[in-house]
Amino acid sequence: MSIKAGDLKHPIKLQRPVTTRNEKSKTITTWEDVVTVYAGKTDVSGREFYIAQAYHAEDVVTFTIRWRDDIAPTWRVVHHGTAYNILEINHLGYMRDFMRLKCKAVQGEGA
């Protein structure tokens, strides 16, 4: 895989969920910043489609980052105030140099 230093130009935050309980024992999930890294960003799908006669837009992107072995699928990515759930982690053959995070924007939720 050929990645140039200039390809990783988008600062993104990697966040992990933190689950706590409030005074009424209700489970609350908040997001904790783990690290800010630089990533390449590629639109996977800018397609718009009809499902059950309702109009939807799908915002799926791939972020390419330097290898990290601590990222879990339950984490999320934040880029320019938009939160993205991680759909897939591609370790690119476990070469331990770069990895791709396929993500989908979380509707109605910023960071």
List keywords for this structure.
about 110 residues, Thrombin, subunit H, about 0% helix, about 65% strand
Topology (elements, then pairings):
Layout: E1 10-21, E2 27-45, E3 48-51, E4 54-57, E5 60-66, E6 76-79, E7 82-90, E8 98-110
Antiparallel strand pairs: 1-2, 1-6, 2-5, 3-4, 5-8, 6-7, 7-8
Write structural notes for this entry.
The chain has 111 residues and is mainly beta. The chain is built from no helices and 8 strands. The radius of gyration is 16 Å and the shape is elongated. Residues 46-56 have low confidence and may be disordered.
The largest pleated sheet is described as:
6 strands, antiparallel, barrel
**Low-confidence regions:** 46-56
Q: Report the structural category.
A: mainly beta
Can you tell me the number of structural domains?
1
Provide a compact summary of the structure:
The chain has 111 residues and is an all-beta fold. 0% of the residues lie in helices and 65% in strands.
